[in-house]
What does this fold into?
Amino acid sequence: MEKSKFKLLIIIAVVFVAMAALSACSKAPSATDAPAPAPTQACPPATPCPNVPESVSAPFEEAWKNSPHADASAEAFLHWNEENPAEIPAACAKCHSSPGFLDYVGADGSEMFKTDANAPVGTVITCVTCHNDATMALDTVNFPSGVVLTGLGNEAVCMTCHQGLASKVQVDEAITKASVADDDTVSADLGFINIHYFAAAVSRYGTEVKGGYEYEGMTYDTLFEHVPGIQTCTDCHNPHSTEIKIDTCKKCHGTETVADLHNVREPSSAVDYDGDGNISEGIYDELEGLKAMTLTAMQAYAADVAGSPIVYDSATYPYFFADANANGTIDEGEGKYVSWTPRLLKAAYNLQTVTKDPGGYAHGGKYLIQLLHDSISSLNEKLATPVDLSKAARNDAGHFASNAEPWRHWDADGEVPGTCAKCHSADGLPQFLHNGTNIAMEPTSGLYCETCHNTAAFPALYQVETVTFPNGAKLGFPDSPNANLCLSCHQGRESTVSVNRVIGTTPDDQISETLRFLNVHYFAAGATLFGTEAKGVYEYEGKTYVGQFIHVNGFSTCIDCHDQHALEVQVAACSGCHSTMDPKTIRLSSLEDYDGDGDVKEGIAGEIETMAEKLYLALQEKAAAGGNPLVYDANAYPYYFADANANGMLDEGESGYATWTPRLLKAAYNYQYVQKDPGAFAHNGTYIMQILFDAIEDVGGSTTGMVRPQ
It folds into this structure.
């Protein structure tokens, strides 16, 4: 009974506590109370699912289906099907399967720029290969040479595969590993190295990525820059079908079909690369000519030096075969070529590199031309009958010679300074004409069409009425504003004014640490032509000098005598009056013996050459008499050196000349001026002979028998 009462009391207490709790929940919440839960939102009424077709076409799917990237029957995707196990090796999977590429770019969560595993067979390059977050963010490409290019944008996707599998680095490593005695020793440890197929990025980026075999001591073209807006892979190729956008090409080149592109050749390509006498054929045909010449040289070398004839078939692996019967064709039973020497291997690698980029003529033909030229030259060193390269040009004219020092000097710095940009970058002159000054600019591969042709009124040239020369004079050809474009750069950078400024009040024969050699710079033809009006040379006080050299009507400006693209002198025009194809033999009607050598029939070029030689001798004698011998080297900066052992030659360790007197400096400046304007005899021969005569006289040289032109 007592237990029953006790249980009843417990129940009543629990009920009481529960009622109290319910009562508390019904009150308004205080600052410390938990807020009431939000009411649950009701679900909207159900709607029927839309009707989905059985198959949905992705954008551009049809274009992709007909592309090489989707061709499941191609060797590029079938090659490993019969392997055991049937899988694509990691080294090949990056470009021959979708899983391999996704692995390489890290789209599968793995390390980027590394293919971690073999890939399954049976895939092609699909939409997902390129359309995923990792691939879309890709803008860096690692090349076989070890060069890494960044900031490429979407074309990095294309270049990841279209870059080849080898480079100069791999070829040199193989040669080093074989430990051959010299370049012409056959080694069983050497085998052909194949760059692989469609290495378009190698052709386009040239020496930047060093995909071709580049020979020591030679310089090569860099990135081929087309025109603004048409620079990248997908500017020229449809990214899904890979087809060439022929309508884009047509706008400038007038091409109707892809085959027409074989005939394309820019005005800047005004030299005969293969030496066949045809400078109207397309770059494609120039390369075809050089490929044939390279193979000819290889076959002669293989038979005569390596001791085993060779034959090449670009469509049959392993491409190079031992030509047992020396008939120039591959016959049954003839196996791969094994008598490799380093010299032969380098040339074979380059021939294959050019051959396996069928669009190389458009991607970067000048670089490929240089590779073939150098391969032939190397083989020629050992041939009894070398392949004739005497009429074949390796490089473009100076304005377009991408491999030359005027364009490559600033590569390491990454920019051309504002003081140099006007003439040493493609966009420098337009910027100067627009703003009157220049800022630092990126290095370029020579001049572009847009450097001289006004893009706003293409193909019209920029109109320049006058040009300000270093001495402050505003000069120009009054009736030829186009020719004044040439004067904008070909005017030098110094003058009588700047030399006098450096000298100041220093006595003529006093050595001064404040004096430094002033270099007029190169090809100051405009200053020569305008003579004393420009004062590009150092004019001596108390002497009079001739002004502008006026030739004859129609032949008074730069572009009257020089081809504006090839830059060459139009010698055929000279022959009309002078009856010679060699301008250096031309002289004025005067029979004066200017240089005192007794020859009054030699060309003005000969007179100037001898006078310059006499000036240099007088310079050396004057410097030596002062106890500080000097020596000159036109190809080595800073040109004048202290001749420590007084042997008249530049030797290792001899540094720049630093013991200048005003008298020496003036004469040295004039000597350099003449060396750096090789056409001075034609630009204004009288003016040049006047300053040479005066310089010789001023430094105490003998002018006996010489005549100063009036």
